Amino acid sequence: MKTINIRQAFPEDWIRVLHNIANLFYEDTTIVHGDNEADMYFDLAYEVQHNYTVATSATMTVAGQTFTNTYEKQYDTAGTEKEVRIRCKRALSHVMLDCLEQFTGVTQEWGILTGVRPTKLFHKYRKQGMPEAEIFATLQADYRISDGKIELMKEIVERQLATIPDLDNIGREISVYIGIPFCPTKCAYCTFPAYAIQSNRKVGRVDTFLDGLHIEIREMGKWLTDNNMKITSIYWGGGTPTSIEAHEMDALYKTMFESFPNPETIREITVEAGRPDTITPEKIDVLKKWGIDRISVNPQSYTDETLKAIGRHHTVQETIDKFWLSRNSGMNNINMDLIIGLPNEGIEEFQNSLDESAKMQPESLTVHTLSFKRASEMTRNKDKYKVADRDTVAEMMNMAQVWTKEHDYVPYYLYRQKNILGNLENVGYSKVGEESIYNIVIMEEVQTILGIGCGASSKFVNPETGKIWQFHNPKDPAAYIMTFAESIDKKIEQLDELYNRQLVK
Ligand code: SF4
């Protein structure tokens, strides 16, 4: 834990940005001002010059050493007040990052970019008509992103456009997320709405939740039908949507297909079957009956001790068996998730995970980097979990990149999270042509995602202005049961506002 004194009194949102930069180098930094004692001190200055140049400088003093940096960028226009503030924050981040890199010797591959969706930035410049060389130069000079990461962004953007040729116009369609908030047990790193199914079933909460969910699917389906909306993709997540019984899944899919408009035109339906211990031949039959063939069977690791340590309650062998059961039953689009940096895992364990993946060759492989989410059991008891250092984590990410290339996978989406090990990223790889449409549209925020069920967030995207806002269904099944009717009304209000008043001319 480091205390950092930024001597100048900047506005709160500026300090937040600078705090994020400090957190790239140290866990849990505290920012203070003025004469307060600290581990390191920053003198930061900025100036907006008459020719629209923003100039910044930093002097960092730490343990008797001093590091300095200056940066300036000239803009073509004066910019609005808001734009000027953004320019200044970015320029200050630039000089602060440089000083911290000098002192620590750590190079931040993502530069000053601390946001979740780096590829969105690439798309933004592409849509503005910026030539590729200029996009590269801007990402390098203004954001300090490394060449390797920019190449990765470019490759992903190209794959996304090949997968969804109408990506830039898909905002008039909608995708749907449906959340089932139950799992067999809770994984130690998890902050998703995932409640133990057995205990909830005993008190009747699974039944009442499912009753509410049927109603919500029907009501939202009615709005979609009445308003002639086209559905691009549907994603069943949670929790683990296969933790309920086969007949319960069957009933839900029946309601979905009866309620949603023109199901035959939906481009993709995915059901997360993340926990291998929930997959049974009966449930696979139900998925096949409804023509759902994209599922996730998530190993996370192929080391039994790790699975035990993170509370997964299934074995490596069970993952392998359930993968082959699904494959041999005709599931022809299977995703598998791996996590880099799980407790006590290093190069050897990750190599083993890659070797095992090679035997199955799922259509897609999503490589996550462990992140310490605030509310997870792992973060609450951090001392109990020993994780790999920054260099080892980076090496594992590199191994994944090399392995996927060797096995004909291409990266097609990526996102970053707070407190992610090594300030790295999560990357979705797939065989060419097997990319998940849902993963792309949600990551690039190109269309509205209607959230149904527990913990489901609806993200409304105005296709004309790009404005985004959210509505969250409750995470807890008990709260959902009490409030789902109200949530339906609120969402319909938002949808009416977005699609009926603004777009119908
Ligand atoms: S299977 Fe997924 S949703 Fe369920 S507890 Fe584990 S990480 Fe959370």
How would you describe this structure in keywords?
505 residues; alpha/beta; Maf protein; 4 domains; five-stranded mixed beta sheet; 16 helices; binds iron/sulfur cluster; catalytic activity
Characterization of this structure:
The protein is α/β, with parallel strands linked by helices and 505 residues long. The chain folds into four domains: 1-106, Maf protein; 112-163; 170-265 and 444-499, no CATH class; 294-332 and 334-433, Transcription Regulator spoIIAA (2-Layer Sandwich). It contains 16 helices and 18 strands. It has helices spanning 12-23, 81-104, 118-127, 132-141, 147-163, 197-202, 205-226, 246-259, 281-289, 304-309, 316-328, 347-360, 377-380, 390-406, 437-444, 477-501, and strands spanning 3-6, 30-32, 40-48, 53-62, 65-74, 174-180, 182-183, 195-196, 231-238, 268-272, 294-296, 333-340, 364-369, 409-415, 426-431, 448-453, 457-461, 468-472. Helix 1 packs parallel to helix 2. The longest helix is centred in the last third of the chain and has 25 residues, at 477-501. The chain starts with a strand and ends with a helix. Bound molecules: iron/sulfur cluster. The site of iron/sulfur cluster has 11 residues, from loops.
Provide the spatial order of strands within the biggest beta sheet: 14-15-13-12-11-10-9-6-16
Q: What value does the average pLDDT take?
A: 94
Q: Which molecules are bound in this entry? A: iron/sulfur cluster
CA(first)-CA(last) distance: 56 Å
Shape: globular
Q: How many distinct helices? A: 16
The tally of structural domains comes to 4
Structural class: alpha/beta
Tally of DSSP β-strands: 18
* Largest beta-sheet details: 9 strands, mixed
